[in-house]
Amino acid sequence: MKEGLPQKLRELRELLDEACPAIAGLPRATRAVVARCADRLDRDLLPRTAGAHDHLVAGIVGPNNAGKSALFNALVGEALSPSEPTGGATRRLVGVCHPELAAHLRSEPTLARFPLRSMGAAQGGLREALVETDRTAQLLLVERAGLPADVLLIDAPDFDSILVANRRASEALLKVADLALVVVTRHTYQNRDVVDFLKTWLAHGRPWALVYNESLGTEVTREHAAKLAADLGSAPVAVFQAPFDIGVQRGESWLEPVELDGDTPLREWLFHLGNAPGLKARALASSLDGLDGDLDELRAALADEARLAADLAAAASDRAARLGREVAGKAMPMAPFLDAFRAVLDRRPSLIQRGFRGALRTSRLFLEAALARLPFGSRPRRVGEAETDLARVEGKALGPAWPAYFEDLCLELGPGGAFWKHHGAPDDELRRRLEADLAPGRSEAARERALATLGADPEVMRAFQDACEDLIESELVERGYEWVWQLAVDTLHLLPVVTAGIVIFKTAGLGADVAVAGAGTLSTLVAEKMSRLLGSEVARGARARWTKLRGARLARVMYEAALAETHVELAARQARHDELGEVLRGLQEELR
Questions:
Q1: 196-240, pLDDT tens digit by residue?
Q2: How large a percentage of the chain has pLDDT more than 90?
Q3: pLDDT at 517
Q4: How does strand 116-118 pair with strand 139-143?
Q5: Cα 519–522–527 angle (5° rounding)?
Q6: Domain extents for the chain?
Q7: Which CATH superfamily is domain 55-87+154-274 in?
Q8: What is residue 46's three-state secondary structure?
């Protein structure tokens, strides 16, 4: 056993418990994978690696009327499990073991791999319990002193029965067995349902022995055994055969298979295996491989759920992005644009020019302060007022466009919308949140939430100014008008430009048709003159940068305003599913 394996398995089990709230809203198929992982850990891997009482679990499985119960009774030496010529008499898992082993199983229930129900020595109660249809995963346990103390023998119902509970009982047994005794006949060894069922449970290398009942001869048995092994992709550890015997069917004689290439009876072979370290090691490896497959399936399901949340968020964000760019294109602030001119040209002149420009700045600040003290003077506009101007223009652009945007979201993303035609139906929690956000009458409230968060964003303003500086640098190098710009910027340093606040241009050319938000006349005229000297390419480039930067910010605002509850859940799902998937991947690597 790999060092530290029991601890890692316990960590995985604890993780599944902790993840229950995160997976509660996942599809039923995903929750079923989680339950399967937990069941495999609880009933198989944790008991198997606990280092407690070591015993061999041998399970008898097979299709209807193959002779499973007849074999079970022959191995025990008495007719415990009902065996009928038509088959299908057993509907429960029934086990038999030495009293010493039974005591260990009762003292530590997890070692039994199943909930135990002790049946005592009498057969009447057992026969009644065997035909019950409820609690099929329960193991009806009978004690017999004549059996070895290190073997637990279990008989299972037909796995090809029309009763779903019978199949589940066989699956539960194959999940934990150290050795599967597969009983078939010449009529069932290549039945597709039989092969598919066994292939599922033996695919990971779980040890199995073939018991070929009603054999017509050694060569036929060998040929059919090879065919079954090839179909399953797994070779049996041993092959036994038993000839057709009407007495066995009538319950008048025991079914006593012997080894195909020898004369060792199955009963002797099995009961001398004891705890068979080699078989148990293979069974452990098989269980770990099965768990690894379950975890792969769970991680894939978590990734699908995270991807669904991301796709839904992207679908809503795409629509918000279109509206954000449209609104941002209606208004571009001039202040970062002018500041970009100053910053670029301040880096270029000589030391004497920089000193001169510093003096101009001082003069401008003095002039602004003086004008503010005059009764008819205009005070500098504060940043908050400038943001209000920008928000006012954006709000006027957003108002008429919002209803169509919200209606588009409802048609696309609401339960039954176009998005879900390609992604299946939303789960209950996501449906509840979408219905709450996109309910009739919620559009106006969502628009008000968006309007309340409009306004200048310092990070966007800084990024916009940086972009403008790059454009202006390129333009100066290409066109060589630096002396004109130096003069213009010197003038701007002298004029009380702050009184203009944020000048909002409405055309891509930055031409004469400017909309000035509380601007001073002189500064506006200078800005117009600069825009004419600047050139249309830089103007369009500046507007494109602004539309992209501000549009992304507005898109986020509109997305979160329209899907106030849903966007929080989508972000949380992506985070927790991705995180859980990574933790599971790490544990898988350590378990391998």
A1: 989 888 878 899 999 999 999 999 999 999 999 999 999 999 999
A2: 34
A3: 36
A4: parallel
A5: 75
A6: 55-87+154-274, 312-580
A7: P-loop containing nucleotide triphosphate hydrolases (3.40.50.300)
A8: helix
